[in-house]
Amino acid sequence: MFGYEEVSRDGHTLDVLTDHGSGLRIMVTRLGAEMVSMARLNPDKSWIGFLYRDGIVQPAKSGWNNHATVMGYYLHRIKNEQTTYRGHPVRGGTHSFLRHKRFGAPKVETGETASLTYRITPDQIDPEEYPFKVALNLVYTLSSTGVRVTFRFQNLEPELAAHVSFGLHPGFACTSLEEARVMMPAGSYVRHFAPGNFLSGEQEQFDFSAGPMPFNKADLPGSFLLELKNVPLPIFLLEDHGSKRHIYLNFSGAPYVTIWSDGNPFICVEPCWGLPDHQEQKPFEQKLGIQEIPAGETLERSFTMSPHLAE
C-alpha cells in the first residue's frame, strides 16, 4: 500500500511518497523537483537514508549542498556560462536552470506502483535559459524494488528539431570514502578528460572485466566522465561496508556516467545524456552527446535505483 503526504519544512514544500509494504520512501522538494531523501525502513522501524545529508534541506555548512540535482536542459557546464543555440544566446550556471525552478504540485498516481510527476512548460523558461518550446515531465516512480526516474521531453516546435542534454546528479551517502566502493560492470568504456570542467578532446578507451572502479578515489573531485561504449549489462553497484547500504543503479539506455565526490562522505554516480562544453566551445546544438528531438515528438529516457540494507 502506498501513501502520499505534503510536508512543509525549513522553507521547502516536500512531497513524500511511501511504499508501506516494502518499506521504501522518497521525499522530493518542489525547489528543483529534487529528491532529497531515499530511505529504507530498518527492522527497528527507523528510516535509513541513502542520499548524502538525507532528508536535510537546510544548507550545508561547507562542501556540496545538494542531494540529487536534476540536470537539464543542459548539464555540467557551458563555457563562461554562455553559449549560442542556432544564433540565440543561452546563459546559465552549472547544471542549468531546473535546479532553481519552483515546481507546482506534482500529479500523484497510485496503483501497482506510485508516482510523482513534475512538469515545466516553455512559459516558465526564460528565452536566455532555453530559446525553444520544449516541455518536460519528470517522473519519480516508486515500486517494491526501487525508484525509477523518467525524463520525458516534449518538443512543441512544429517545424524545428530541438536539442537537450540532461541527467540526475545523486550523491549517495557512505560512512567514508574508504568504506565505500563503486563496482562497475564489464564492458568497453571511453573516458573523456575535462580538466577545469571542460572537455579537452583527450579520450582513453579501455576494456574492463567488472569489479571496483579502476580509479583513485583521491581523484574523484576531478570527475570521471565515462562513455558506455559497449557495456551489455550497465548495472553499477555502490557498496558502503560501514553502514551495510548497497544501491544498484541500472543505467540501460544512458550513454554516459559521471563519478564524482568533493571528498566528503558521499559518491555521486550520475547517468548523463550529454557532456559539458569543450574548452574550445562549440554551438549548443553541436555539444558532444547532445540529444535531438524531432519536431512535434517526445524523447523519453529513464533509469532505476534499487537501495538495499545488507544483512
Report on the architecture of this protein.
The protein has a single domain, classed as Distorted Sandwich (Beta-galactosidase, Chain A, domain 5). Helices cover 0% and strands 50% of the residues. The mean pLDDT is 96. The strands form 4 sheets. Strands 9-10-11-12-24-20-19-14-17 form a 9-stranded antiparallel β-sheet, with no helix packed on it. It is mainly β.
State the gist of this model:
This protein has strands at residues 2-9, 12-19, 24-29, 34-41, 47-49, 68-73, 82-85, 88-91, 107-110, 114-120, 134-143, 146-155, 162-173, 180-184, 187-192, 203-208, 211-212, 224-230, 235-240, 245-250, 256-260, 266-273, 291-293, 298-309. It is mostly beta strands and 311 residues long.
